[in-house]
């Protein structure tokens, strides 16, 4: 009657749940390989300025390099920003207001 596995887990790549499966080519001794990460971040569809703000918020350890934890923070903020933009494009904002102008990181008022 019930599916044997969580449908969300089926959609996720295995390395999400097991760090040993993360491709080694993305990691360097000082953090994530920025050259390989850049096209992934750009594929988010977010403006470069917004991605820069997200990077600046997360990047605390080594300027210009992300640790694995900082990368996870960047990816989470990108996901929340994409979701927020989707809600705004549908006219859904906090307190039932309609908004035509999105200010980056005004997303907290939605929650």
TrEMBL record:
Domain of life: Eukaryota
A Pfam family: EH
SUPFAM superfamilies given in the database record: EF-hand
GO cellular component, one term: clathrin coat of trans-Golgi network vesicle
Matches recorded under PROSITE patterns: EH
InterPro entries attached to this UniProt entry: EF-hand-dom_pair, EH_dom, SYNRG
EH domain: residues covered: 17-79
The protein, known as: EH domain-containing protein
Lineage: Eukaryota, Metazoa, Chordata, Craniata, Vertebrata
């Amino acid at each position: 009657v019930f599916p044997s596995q969580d449908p969300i887990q089926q959609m996720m790549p295995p390395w999400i749940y097991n760090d040993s499966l993360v491709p080694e080519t993305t990691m360097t001794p000082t953090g994530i390989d920025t050259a390989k990460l850049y096209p992934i971040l750009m594929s988010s569809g977010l403006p470069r300025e917004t991605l820069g703000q997200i990077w600046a918020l997360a990047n605390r350890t080594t300027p210009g390099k992300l640790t694995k934890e900082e990368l996870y923070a960047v990816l989470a903020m990108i996901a929340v920003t994409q979701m927020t933009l989707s809600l705004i494009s549908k006219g859904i904002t906090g307190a039932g207001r309609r908004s035509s102008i999105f200010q980056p990181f005004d997303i907290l008022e939605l929650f």
